Amino acid sequence: MQKIYIALGSNMGDRLANLQRAVDRIDDEIGRVLHCASVNEVPAVGFSGADFLNTCLVALSSKTPDLILENLQAIERALGREQASDGLYHDRPIDLDLIMVDDQVINTSTLTVPHPRLHERRFVLQPLFEIAPEKGVPNHDQTIAQLFKKCNDPTELSLLGDAIERPAIHFLRQFNRICVEGTIGCGKTSLAKRIAEDIHAKLLLERFAENPFLPKFYDNAERYAFPLEMSFLADRFKQQHELSEQPNLFDQGVVSDYEVHKSLVFAKFTLQPDEFSLYRTIFYNMMRDIQQPDLYILLKQTTPRLLSNIKNRGRSYERSIDADYLNKVRQGYQDFKRSHPDWNIVEIDLSELDFVSNDRDYHLIIDRLKTALTAS
Q1: Same domain assignment for residues 111 and 192
Q2: Same domain, yes or no: 142 and 186
Q3: Lowest mean pLDDT among 156-170, 192-206, 361-375
Q4: DSSP state for residue 183 in the 8-state scheme
Q5: What is the domain range of residue 113?
Q6: Alpha carbon distance 147, 165 (integer Å)
Q7: DSSP-derived 3-state class of residue 70
Q8: Predicted pLDDT at 317
Q9: Domain boundary at 159, 185, 201, which?
Q10: Helix, strand or coil for residue 127?
Q11: CA atoms within 13 A on the CB side of 173
């Protein structure tokens, strides 16, 4: 498998749709699309024509460079590009250029990589700089970032508000409210951030760092459990209320690293039975109008990995967390899952994955989500 870098452009018809269709076809026919850069509007270069929309992507492919080129040309034809007989530049619904293939240098009658004019074109360098700034460019002994900095191309690029998306994650756009949940240290915040970025959704994060009772709870759980849970409940209610007041928010979609019912998951084993009974009554009075998420992603991780993750992030007040506490939290989430069979809950096992350090593991998580949702 090798990383390939492709530049895309369109200046005819529905330009953004043309780019997205090309990305979808590349993902289906050439290799897994890993990253798509932002889309820029750019004046036609080399001829007098309509403005282009340009971007770049990086994909993972096992195909030979020659076959990749053939596939790109076939996609161009399928999307309506006609080859000009005069050899000159013309308006075109799609333009796909193979810019680089890992660190290979190829010079044949049909293909040259890296692209011979890569270092001269700002509309290629700028999106490449966004998704692969440290990628070394063969033949130049420089990185994309260095070439971009030295580029003298005066062409002005205008950032487009809309964007193209990696096809692998398209299916998540159908869910307006996605929450990522799991035991402390499982990586729910990191995954929520990544998904929100990929589907261009609003990110909603739990504000635990602002809670003054949290350090006190870990020092003296019996004394501070009730004020801790009440303060979390009050803040989560406030945050959800603020969210509901934002106009047209759910047209964009929301991804959060918590779901309000986690208040009950934790309170059930941190509070005394009479306290929990009172707390549950208050919870349902406050949260009766809160909608359930369209997709609830429950992360599963081993206790040793959880303890390691908690230790590595270095929050002093979490030093007292032990395996017994984490097992209670995990059991609480499993009980919640069983008691809500009507919810769209997908459990993802992360025990063999490290999606923070390994991009392929992130894509594997997305694949597992898609498989689980397709099967349900």
Answers
A1: no
A2: no
A3: 156-170
A4: S
A5: 2-159
A6: 26
A7: helix
A8: 82
A9: 159
A10: helix
A11: 13
Number of structural domains found in the chain: 2
pLDDT in tens, 269-295: 999 999 999 999 999 999 888 888 999
Give the integer Cα–Cα distance in Å for 206 and 208: 6
Residues 32 and 99 in one domain: yes
**Poorest-confidence range of 185-189, 197-201, 351-355?**
197-201
Angle, helices 221-244/262-270, rounded to nearest 10 degrees: 170
Rounded to the nearest 10 degrees, what angle do helices 273-286 and 262-270 cross at? 160
Q: Are residues 250 and 190 in the same domain?
A: yes
Does one domain contain both 153 and 171?
Answer: no
- Sign, CA dihedral 259-264-266-267, equals positive
First to last CA, the chain: 32
Angle 35-39-40 (CA atoms, 0-180°, nearest 5)?
140
d(CA 100, CA 113): 5
167 upstream amide cis, omega within 30 of 0: no
Location of structure tokens 């019912």:
261
Residues 6+ apart with CB under 8 A from 247: none
> Strand 136-137 relative to strand 112-113: parallel, antiparallel, unpaired?
unpaired
Active-site positions read 81, 92, 95, 97
Tokens for 63? Answer: 């195909």
The two tokens of residue 373 are 């949702």
Residues 354-365 have pLDDT tens digits of 998 887 788 889
